[in-house]
Amino acid sequence: MKNNYQICKNCVMDTSDPEITFDENGICDFCDNFNNIILNSWDSEGNNYNELMKIAEKIKREGKRKEYDCIIGISGGVDSSYLAYVAKEIMGLRPLMLTVDTGWNLNVANENVHQLLKKLGLDLETVVVNWEEMKDLQLAFLKSQVPYQDTPQDHAIFAGLYNYAAKHRIKYVFTGANYSTEGVKPPQEWTYLNDIKMIKDIHNTFGNIKLKTFPLCGMFKYKLYYRYFKGLKVVHPLNYIKYEKDEVVSLLKEKFGWEEYENKHYENIFTRFYEGYYLPRKFGYDKRKIYFSNLILTNQMSRDEAMEKLKKNPYSEEQAMLDLEYICDKLDIKKAYFIELINGTNKTFRDYKNNAKIIKLAIKLAKIVGIEKRNFRV
Fold it and tell me: How far apart (Å, rounded) are the C-alpha atoms in residues 276 and 265?
């Protein structure tokens, strides 16, 4: 790969994604997908406000006799925080906020959530993941040597939200996923999909205790059972309004005293270490390339600015070493052993039992019917 290195002439995605392709002008397939597919069905100027309000009125009617008419998973990050503001102040809804405590959030994230909900007058429900189970699965993933070390947290948060909504019959699940900052899908070599078969196989191979209470939700449960038998509907409000990150950050700071993080997802100490140190050092994957490329495509950042930012480390080496020691203490492992794992032989989902073929078919069908427009590769 080093001898054939190439970087997109429009964004900053490059051949650290081994499956990236370029056209004759040196433009990558992520840019092509965004410009020719996503922009054909998404108004980046946010002129769909009336459509959003129609959705809000429908949700209000259906939730008239209920305590809450929708549910939102909140982390304290910019997307979920702004989503809470949009749901309450713009759409006029009564959302229940839900946070899944995986044991890794920084105090600043918890304070962001507290201040936001206090000023918006919203209720918060917390799902606390059993730490011994969380720790065991997290260690199993580290031992597995795959790049997707955030999967235990991501899955717990995702499953915790949908399981709670289904159990308590809250029909509408709001998500902060959006094309403005997340239209470029991380390459599957960097961040594999929600594959419960792989999760279970890694845990069966390297785990030591049973996951008795850990939140689990496979693709069929989420895509079929919850949607078609339980009636859950997923709504993406941030795709209906103009969403520019810098403007939103300023609004959150001004209205709620919200505190910004150094990079996207850095409200979580494990994620900060994983994205800022572990993934670039062990696999050569820098997730900032995804985030910056998306901002370039939506005219929120220049390519030159992105290139300059990428010359710097995601965060300081000193802080990374402090985070490493904190993670070792929390997982009850020696620093030398953790470093040994980081230096171990790299693997992927292909080295474990997986549902890649089924997921690939599901994505293909989702693209055909227009549910999914982002550039997935499996």
Answer: 10
**256-306, pLDDT tens digit by residue?**
999 887 656 567 889 999 999 999 999 999 999 999 999 999 999 999 999
CB 9 within 8 A of CB 26: yes
Beta-carbon contacts of residue 43 (< 8 Å; ≥ 6 apart): none
Would you say 356 and 349 are in contact if contact means Cβ atoms under 8 Å apart?
A: yes
- Buried residues in 243-266 as b, exposed as e (16+ CB within 10 A): bbbeebbeebeeebebeebebbbb
Q: What are phi and psi of 284, to 5 degrees?
A: 80, 20
What letter does residue 186 receive in the DSSP assignment?
A: P
pTM reported for the whole predicted model: 0.90
Other Cβ atoms less than 10 A from the Cβ of 366: the count is 15
Q: What is the pLDDT of residue 194?
A: 81
Strand extents, DSSP E, the chain: 70-73, 95-101, 124-128, 172-174, 233-235
Sequence-distant (≥ 6) Cβ neighbours of residue 216 within 8 angstroms:
155, 159, 196, 199
**Two tokens at 185?**
């899908």
Asked whether residue 375 is domain-assigned, the answer is no
Assess if residue 10 is contained within a domain: no
Token digits of residue 63 = 């939730």
In the chain, the number of structural domains is 1
Q: What is the three-state SS of 19-62?
A: CCCECCCCCEHHHHHHHHHHHHHCCCCCCCHHHHHHHHHHHHHH
Hey, is 13 helix, strand or coil? coil
Cβ atoms of 256 and 116 closer than 8 Å: yes
Please check whether residue 19 lies inside any domain of the structure: no
Written as one letter, the residue type at 230 is K
CA-based end-to-end distance of the chain: 20
What is the gyration radius of the CA atoms in the chain, in angstroms?
20
Give the Cα separation of 330 and 323 in Å (integer).
Answer: 10
User: Which residues neighbour 206 within 8 Å (Cβ) at sequence distance 6 or greater?
Assistant: 139, 140, 141, 143, 144
How many CB atoms sit inside 10 A of residue 8's CB? 24
Tell me what the mean pLDDT of segment 298-319 comes to.
94
Q: For residue 318, what is the domain's CATH number?
A: 3.40.50.620
